[in-house]
Design goal:
Length: about 80
Amino acid sequence: MTATRRRKLKPGTRLPMQPALPFIEADPELRNIDARLIRSGYVRTQNVAMYLQKNSTVSLRFVWRKRFERRTMVHTVNIKVRME
């Protein structure tokens, strides 16, 4: 029987997408930003992009889009979280 190797992730690696709603509900400041942008006509993406940074830090990228007259306005919020 051979042992499977566990590959160590390098900084800058994109992690699997996760649903954005649980993260937004857990942070009051992010919840206020989300409510304000939705009232302004922006639409939140369903998933949050996650990237591994240095020192076990994970960067979460939230995106809201507003489309009108063949133009798209984008608002992004990046949050860094220390993973233990």
